[in-house]
């Protein structure tokens, strides 16, 4: 079919005869036939021979590329006449014989010894092209034969196909010709693959020939793929040894482009699938693990977006390729993430590093073609590693937020701050022990509100609403209560000031807290100077009158004062101090040096607090006192002296940051409180599981408990809870097997 | 040196003056609110009876108003429930 | 109500009453029915006997009293306990107070059993068991109380 159509197309191109016939109409054809009948001679046999003589000569001339002496139209008429006399079969055989003889004569010309492969290919191509143009002319002359005889006998080849058939069977099937042709083509392609320029039109022409002869697949493609296999399997092995992965990936991409170009320019489209598959398989598919192992982490470390994108595209062509890539991705996140969270020495930078890491991963995410599996892998892996270190990340996230929300943090505008908070919420989402976060957040928020002066109420409220959105209203109920207390205190204070008739030189402001909203503070009894305690007393009276049924408990550790200090003539300062610092400095109104014991007796500030306070006054950035002993530690034998030569470039000086700092005890007690709350949850989980299972061995029970809890817990701690439940008769050890527990109903 | 205090910002925690820690009806601590409220304080006040027992106002009201026999007795001591005006 | 019952459950577990234990086969999430195993106390008439006491909590608990009765085939033989398990105890109806709890009711029942000097059924047992309004809910009965001292 194909070849018949091409023959007609070729005929059209040549434009002889065909065009004149197609321009004449049916009438003209009829007239011709009538004239032919008139010319018809008496003897049919003689007539055939005489007509054939001309035709034979013409065909021979065509074969030898000589001019044809007779007009093509007359030749055509002769053929038509022969056909009209029903001698088509004879004519066909004669033509066939003529062509066959010609082809046979051609064969030796193509089997001659010849060293230059390209020259040989050119020769073969010339023969082919000649063959085609000869056949086109022949077809035109013999058109009536094709239209009548051939069409009516389906087993007979059309004249064009006959030509192809002969060319195929006498020339190409010839072992020598075939071997030279194929090896010549492969050599050309090989040299193109190694970077040389080749005559692509020659290759294309010969490949088209093979295709038309239906030999492309059996004799060329198989060999071609075989040689490509060999080349690329070798290339894959060796380049992976010498190339870095990004370089290698680029090379693979280049190879794929080249082969696609080959397909575009001379290979038949049917070769695409086996060829591209061959390149991909040999350069990528066989080496997925090696490539990932050798290069993936580096690509990630260096944020090589283009290379990662390319890697994804290349691997996505293989079953499991993307899956393997995803596994390396998960492992990478877990590995690098763990490095960030696991080392206590790096706690100071942990959160910033986590934020940077997350940002980097988000940036890289664009390489994964929106594949949801990678989104999940990122989440899962992040969640996995961040909880490898229990509790600490949650605590540090809370503290990080604290530094951002504290007054004096002017690094960021409101908008930038909000963005930072949004990012930190993403980390927060991964954390299992949200209770730890809540405890530290609450403690820090309390200090910001009561001591440090929060940077901005808007930012605080915005953070609160983010937490509410994430964890629900119950989580933030108490935090909101804290803000409510602050508002209420404002109202209470303005009412208090109104009823205070005389303006005192000392003004007071009180934050009145609702016990359950705030972290629990230990009450302590300290000695206040009379004017302060009177003022406190006045406020307490006022409050009790306003809110009957209530009483106030003062929390001196959270109080702070604005103090005017007259250091020496002309050296006046204003200090922002903690209440404890104030009480200590007040003592120096009477005396210039005081022993630790004296200070303690006059203030009754609890020992650890007092030491911290003295440290802040004598060993900090604002040394308003001097300490008798060297070093920063405060001892009970120390004498503290007023520093007369104290100077500071500022007039207003804050020393009360000491209140904002978290002490070790504070940290510990915050943690302990969380763990106590958790014990109930652990107990409840154990009982729930045992009630359902009735009897379980130790290990299984521990595993199930861990699975149910939202925070991580050490197996040893679970064991303690199990023992406590045994003591309380919820569980019992199995009598036969002490590692098995039974539920007691 | 001479130091003078100009301003004092103090912190105090308020507590109910109650003769018990928890409300005898809902069993919640007085420092928290009753089960129907969100915040302790003015939103969920306490009331004291003349018998000196006290409850969340919401809790005792439910008892006093809801009982079919209009039982006006203190849940703790069964004396007649009368609010003590302070 | 659920919050208060949770608290009571926790309390009941933390400070158990001697001889009483919660049958822990409570349906998870449904705290409204409790069954308590009662061991007859030593040195009383009920020593060695085991009873089951059932609490059902109404919607308005603790403002309405729970309905409390003995269930199962062993019903303590006591002048204030009917053979269908109903208990004649004032705090369960007229004298209920929201300050009472499962624990205080249990304590009353323990002391009621412990102070018993002779096993017998209430005098109107036969009639009551046949005519009471709802055998499964003693609260439907209009009680008058025999004797507060026992």
Structural class of chain B: alpha+beta
Low-confidence stretches of chain B: none
Physical arrangement of strands within the biggest beta sheet of chain A: 3-4-8
User: What number is the mean pLDDT of chain B?
Assistant: 87
Q: Any idea of the CATH class of chain B?
A: Alpha Beta
Descriptive notes:
Chain A has 745 residues and is mainly alpha-helical. Among the domains of chain A are: 4-34, no CATH class; 40-113 and 132-153, Up-down Bundle (5 helical Cullin repeat like), CATH 1.20.1310; 288-386, Cullin Repeats (5 helical Cullin repeat like, Up-down Bundle); 559-659, Ribosomal Protein S5, domain 2 (2-Layer Sandwich); 666-743, Winged helix-like DNA-binding domain superfamily/Winged helix DNA-binding domain (Arc Repressor Mutant, subunit A, Orthogonal Bundle), CATH 1.10.10.10. Chain A has 32 helices and 11 strands. A 3-stranded mixed beta sheet of chain A has the order 3-4-8. The longest helix of chain A is centred in the C-terminal third of the chain and has 30 residues, at 664-693. Chain B is of the alpha+beta class and 86 residues long. Chain B has one domain: Herpes Virus-1, CATH 3.30.40.10. Chain B has 1 helix and 3 strands. Chain B has one helix at residues 57-66, and strands at residues 2-16, 46-48, 54-56. With 150 residues, chain C is of the alpha+beta class. A 4-stranded antiparallel beta sheet of chain C has the order 1-2-3-4, with no helix packed on it. The relative contact order of chain C is 0.17. The model of chain C has no long low-confidence stretch (mean pLDDT 85). The chains are: A mainly alpha (745), B alpha+beta (86), C alpha+beta (150). Chains in contact: A-B, A-C, B-C. Strand 3 of chain A pairs antiparallel with strand 1 (2-16) of chain B.
What is the topology?
The complex is a heterotrimer of chains A (745), B (86) and C (150).
Chain A: H1 2-14, H2 18-23, H3 26-39, H4 44-63, H5 72-84, H6 88-111, H7 117-141, H8 143-152, H9 159-172, H10 175-193, H11 200-212, H12 216-242, H13 245-265, H14 272-283, H15 288-301, H16 305-315, H17 321-342, H18 347-364, H19 372-386, H20 392-405, H21 414-430, H22 434-452, H23 457-471, H24 473-499, E1 507-514, H25 530-546, E2 550-554, E3 560-568, E4 571-578, H26 579-587, E5 593-595, H27 596-603, H28 607-618, E6 625-627, E7 639-642, E8 652-654, H29 657-660, H30 664-693, E9 695-697, H31 698-708, H32 715-727, E10 731-733, E11 740-743
Parallel strand pairs in A: 4-8
Antiparallel strand pairs in A: 3-4, 5-7, 6-7, 9-11, 10-11
Helix pairs in contact in A: 1-7, 4-5, 4-6, 5-8, 6-9, 7-9, 7-10, 7-11, 11-12, 12-14, 13-14, 13-16, 15-16, 15-17, 17-19, 18-20, 20-21, 20-22, 21-23, 22-24, 22-30, 23-24, 30-31, 30-32
Chain B: E1 2-16, E2 46-48, E3 54-56, H1 57-66
Antiparallel strand pairs in B: 2-3
Chain C: H1 2-14, E1 20-22, E2 33-39, E3 50-56, E4 67-71, H2 102-114, H3 125-131
Antiparallel strand pairs in C: 1-2, 2-3, 3-4
Domain Cullin family profile (chain A): 392-618
Organism (chain A): Brachionus calyciflorus
InterPro entries (chain A): Cullin, Cullin-like_AB, Cullin_CS, Cullin_homology, Cullin_homology_sf, Cullin_N, Cullin_neddylation_domain, Cullin_repeat-like_dom_sf
